[in-house]
Amino acid sequence: MAESYNDWWSLAGVDALVGETPAGWLAAPPANDPAPARPKMAPAIAAEPEAAPLPAALQRQEVVAAPVAKGPVELPGDWATFQSWLADHPDVPGSQWDARRVLPVGDAGAPLMLLTAWPEIDDQRDGELFAGPAGKLLDAMLRAIGTTRDACYMASLAVTRPPGGRCDERDLGELDRLLWHHLRLARPGRLLLIGSDIVRMAAKIALSDARGNLLDINQDGGKVEAVAIAHPAMLLARPAQKAAAWDSLKLFNRGR
């Protein structure tokens, strides 16, 4: 039996249990051509002779466009044109934040001008100033001093509301020019500044310092009496400030 096994393994080519050198079972078989193939070389292309440079006068010159300095926006000088300009001109300062503009209401020379910095969210939605509950509160405040909104000229300095109710210094500079031009054309008898933003722009003081004081707003060498109150929307949110607003409004009744 053992001899038959040995004969079988011999016929299979096995004549040792362990070989002297590794068999290399995983090695790739040698190629037919033992010499490595030489890489094919691309035919050499002769370089073209470099062209002589053109004279400086004929060389292409890159034209650098000079920045166009945009000057101040031209503000219309008469009342009717100014109102139309506020309604639809693309260069109106403060019109860039919303497609819908909230426009002034009333006539020039009104005994009282109501001025705020920009529309509130309800105003922008409804397309009119002092809309919603804040407008109802303002109507009650006006009745308390013997007038109505129909007898006043109402305007916001910016005809749209900036995001978050805040704008940057560049926009404030343009709005400042618009403020004094607007007042010059409106020629109000008295001025009610509504909201802390317009108080800072027109009176150059904080609302807290303006409360209870009759302010004089300089305009073209003259003075316009003004009173400052918090916006009715703020008074609704903070009823404790209503007393301070009433103290300021009562100043309009002096001398009557």
Task: Give the helix/strand layout.
Layout: H1 2-11, H2 79-88, E1 112-116, H3 121-126, H4 132-144, E2 153-156, H5 169-186, E3 190-194, H6 196-203, H7 207-210, E4 215-219, E5 222-229, H8 232-237, H9 242-249
Parallel strand pairs: 1-2, 1-3, 3-5
Antiparallel strand pairs: 4-5
Describe what this molecule looks like in 3D:
This protein has 256 residues and is of the alpha/beta class. The chain has a domain at 94-253: Uracil-DNA Glycosylase, subunit E (3-Layer(aba) Sandwich). 32% of the residues lie in helices and 11% in strands. It is built from nine helices and five strands, in the order ααβααβαβααββαα. It has helices at residues 2-11, 79-88, 121-126, 132-144, 169-186, 196-203, 207-210, 232-237, 242-249, and strands at 112-116, 153-156, 190-194, 215-219, 222-229. It has a five-stranded mixed beta sheet. A hairpin with a 2-residue loop joins strand 4 (215-219) and strand 5 (222-229). Residues 63-69 have low confidence and may be disordered.
